Amino acid sequence: MAAQGILIFGATGDLAQRMLFPSLYFLDEDGLLPDGLKIVGCSRGKLGDEKFAQQIEKAVRARAPSISDEAWRRFRNRLSHVAVDATVPETFSELRERVGEASELIFYLSTSPSHYGAICSHLKNVGLANATSRVVVEKPIGRDLASCRAINDALAHAFSEDRIFRIDHYLGKEAVQNLIALRFANTLFEPLWNKVSIAQIQITVAETVGVEDRWSYYDEYGAIRDMVQNHLLQLLCLVAMEPPANLDPDSVRNEKVKVLRSLKPIVGRDVERKTVRGQYRDGVSEGRSVPGYSEESGGQASKTETFVALCAHVDNWRWAGVPFYLRTGKRLPQRSSEIVIQFRDVPHSIFAGADLLANRLTIRLQPEEEISLLLMNKTPSLEQELKPLALNLSLSNAFKRPRRRIAYERLLLEALNNKPTLFVRRDEAEAAWVWIDAIMAGWDRQGTSLTPYAAGSWGPAGAFALTERNGHSWYE
Ligand code: BG6
């Protein structure tokens, strides 16, 4: 049976307005939403259906300026609003009445995680959390292992694990899905995908934006919790995991969790040698002067990092000894997310005097989806001259699409169709925290310094030393 309703808690919040409603609209426009699916916005204020629909229309038109009146009318007919307050249980009885006998409901919690427990428990009390309904939750699932467990326990009180969909929006990105295809729909790479052929792997998620109006959220989390615990570790899992038997939810997630559990803890002296934390100060970003992180909150001093670089190791037969460099930060010089697989040097060069560059596979996720493979070539001349050249695959040129889909479109559709493969299982989220907690405990114990870096630069100098110590350097 198809889902009959999706109820979005936090419906007037930033994420819902910027991502969720426009994504649902696009799915509807493409005829991908189940017939009769109702979309119910839940938020505290008594907005009323009409005002709510006006808000959503504005949000949708901001992303899709040229929508037709007919498409909008169809979407509008699905929308309604119910005033629900996580701290007022009676509002859930009203919600129950409004929903009526609808089954297969999806509750999307786009609120602060501090409300997840109360919302789930009220949903259960009024009989809405039942054997046919599912819950979708946004990150952050906690700020450490203990708080993650507490949230998971609260969710488990109302929903069984197969009905809990933890979002990591990176898993909805086209290019991230293509990474699985690249690895497992080709025979070329798999025999080389190990420590024998690969020297090092780099995963960078760089952003030019600062923290700005998200300061109060961000300051509680910092880059390691906001980005590394989820997005970067998910990318690492997809790069490092063993081939799953199929794409069934548990086949894939079992492999990912094995990777997370094989991550070598960064403890003791390694905390100083294998981690770097930075915070941006003022500088020039994309051609304009921008304030530093602490100025953004009116000069309040903060110990929160806006940049992290780590050298991780996956301790198993496939990857023993191969460094996985992870790096992410705000106010870096360019927006780019990419995975670089650096192959080893040829074992012996027969080209006297030639500078041979080792092969390098770059999988660019953002801003454009591109895959390039660096190969050595002979230049067309009578000389024995060699030069590196890249085989380039531009996915956006190869597959012309009217527009790039929002990652949430795929994830919403998967949740509507009850397919949890692209969502994070409880043991995955907790295994990621185990590894991150050890690093954060090391930072606290050793008072690891927070190095300032100029906005618009590639982070503190320590990030370069991190790779150079192993004879490597970042690819930019
Ligand atoms: C979010 C983080 O999960 O991902 C943000 O909370 C970050 O801080 C964002 O900016 C990056 O996502 P994307 O899709 O723009 O790379």
Rg calc = 24 Å
CATH architecture of the largest domain: 2-Layer Sandwich
CATH class of the largest domain: Alpha Beta
- Please give the order of strands in the largest beta sheet: 16-15-14-13-7-12-11-8-17
User: CATH superfamily membership of the largest domain, which one?
Assistant: Dihydrodipicolinate Reductase, domain 2
What general outline do the C-alpha atoms trace?
globular
- Number of E-type strands: 17
Mean pLDDT: 95
Structural class: alpha/beta
**DSSP helix fraction:** 25-40%
- Main sheet? 9 strands, mixed
Keywords:
nine-stranded mixed β-sheet, alpha/beta, 476 residues, binds 6-O-phosphono-beta-D-glucopyranose, 2 domains, 21% strand, six-stranded parallel β-sheet
Task: Characterise this structure.
With 476 residues, this protein is α/β, with parallel strands linked by helices. The chain has two domains: 134 residues, Rossmann fold, CATH 3.40.50; 279 residues, 2-Layer Sandwich (Dihydrodipicolinate Reductase, domain 2), CATH 3.30.360. 37% of the residues lie in helices and 21% in strands. It is built from 15 helices and 17 strands. The strands form three sheets. A nine-stranded mixed beta sheet has the order 16-15-14-13-7-12-11-8-17, with helices on both faces. Strands 3-2-1-4-5-6 form a six-stranded parallel beta sheet, sandwiched between helices. Helix 1 packs across helix 13 and helix 8 crosses helix 14. The mean pLDDT is 95. 6-O-phosphono-beta-D-glucopyranose binds next to loops.
